[in-house]
Task: structure prediction
Amino acid sequence: MIALGIIFAIIFIKFKPIYQVNIAGKDIGYIENKDNVIEKIEENLENNNETIESITFTIKPEYELKLVNRTIDTDEEKVFEEIAKNTIVTYKYYEIALNESVILNVATIEEAEQLINEIKEQKGKEIGENNINLTVSEKYTEETVEISQIEVARTNLNDRVVTAINDEVARKAEEERIRNMPDVNGIKLANLPVTGTITSRYGVSSRIRSSDHTGLDIAAKKGTPIKVVSDGVVTFAKYNGSYGYLVKVDHGNGVETWYAHTSKMYVSAGETVKAGDVIALVGSTGNSTGPHLHFEIRINGEHVNPQKYLYK
Ligand SMILES: [Zn+2]
Result:
């Protein structure tokens, strides 16, 4: 009995009981107390933010109680890191969308509500007038997501939503502007070729011309950009007698627009152009007494009065 007591005493002087931790059959080290590690992981994650929905271990650690030599150190830090690596954390977050397209994610509902309220105060008029729908939905990360990916959204929240609203307002205004522009034989004109003073109208006769005026003259400074009035294909871009440097654009449906007396041309025949593209600069080439754009609209080859459509 005494002998047995002595043996136990020797064992406790020389050895200590600790847990050896295994992940998928791999030893990762020793720890004093197995509950501490899980608590530590949970505390660590939860202290960082309040958005964690759940914590799942992909591979559960296994613990084996062992008596080992007292000189063996425990590896709390290393074991903690290994277990954390095998943990999936699901974050709850809030998605803010403008007309169904996501602008940003925030971590808490309070943040989302505060943001929406601030935006409504600042941009309420635009939101109302443009049918802008701002929505907040509760979401959960499906994969392992670093909390920093959600945190990123915290910076300049307000700016990002305001920018998205401004973009949407501008897009709608542009749509509306084009809706109000005239059609020529089913072709929508999107803009004026230049802004300036009308110096000679369609159909008038003049001593400098052999026939009645086939287009509209708009005086503008030499070098003023000339914008094509609708999408189309350039069919002509050359010097042409009294027209000087002339650009013709075919818009389909038999509709063509002509831009004459230009000082410089930026397009060549065969090129596709978009409404608003700068195709040439105002000049005074050909039969011209000063810098201006001679602008024609032709339907099936016949010139028509441009002021039926533009510069009314
Ligand atoms: Zn003219």
Notes: The chain has a mean pLDDT of 86. The longest strand covers residues 87-98. The chain is about 30% helix and 35% strand.
